[in-house]
Amino acid sequence: MTQETRPDPEARNPRRDFLGKSALGLAALGAAGLAPASASAMSHGDKKKGFDLFAAPLDGKGHYKLPELPYAYDALEPAIDEQTTRLHHDLHFQGYTSGLNNALGKLAAARDSGDFGLVQHWEGKLAFHGAGYMLHLVFFDGLAPAGSTSPSQSLRKALEKDFGSFAAFKAHFSAASRTVEGSGWGILGYQPVGDRLLVLQAEKHQNRTQWGILPLLTLDVWEHAYYLKYQNRRAEYVENFWSVVNWDRLAERLEAAKGLHS
Ligand SMILES: [Fe+2]
Description:
Strand order of the largest sheet: 2-1-3
CATH superfamily of the domain at 153-261: Iron/manganese superoxide dismutase, C-terminal domain
CATH architecture of the domain at 153-261: 3-Layer(bab) Sandwich
Bound molecules: fe (ii) ion
Largest sheet: 3 strands, antiparallel
Distance between the termini: 36 Å
Order of helices and strands: HHHHHHEEEHHH
CATH topology of the domain at 153-261: minor pseudopilin epsh fold
Strand content: 5-15%
């Protein structure tokens, strides 16, 4: 990996600094799933092991790391079964992590050699694995054991502002997630430029996205996320997803995203 891809030691800022100017860089790159290395190198995890708002864990060389789950593999039962969580995190999320680092390394090598003959191929891999890494980061961070959290009044008010009602938000998010054609995601995102919450529907995850979105809550509707337990009953999986949303974490994420305007 070249010097350009390593985190700048000067950028190891406290959270407020990250959530100021540098977070706008993250927002701009959000659709490709890539936080700039300088923004991602902030301090991590005072509340949770392995996850932090809008920041990816990096090793000393600037490589993305697979964060440890902040709950047990069976903590989401019965909505999401232990075996699925174990495979999803340890194999699939790890695959995106390795793929992202590999793509970054190949592109760094291309810059070093000046040979960009495979740039289209590796940019595609960068988008696929980078978006996958980011969305899985938010997905696993956005879950908690059933009944352990509930939506606060301020979170409800924020959702009501842009969706009309809390029930309308859930209905919209569920419908978008249920009707993804093939593999993809339902996504609640924050659009800084309009100070607006949006529900997006992502096919795969490198297509049909938009720039400038901070993902706040994501639902993985790739078959690997639910097929062992639900088979073709995606709607049932989507409905049960709501029982394991970490509403406290969503409120924190929204508050931090809104802080971009302050
Ligand atoms: Fe997944």
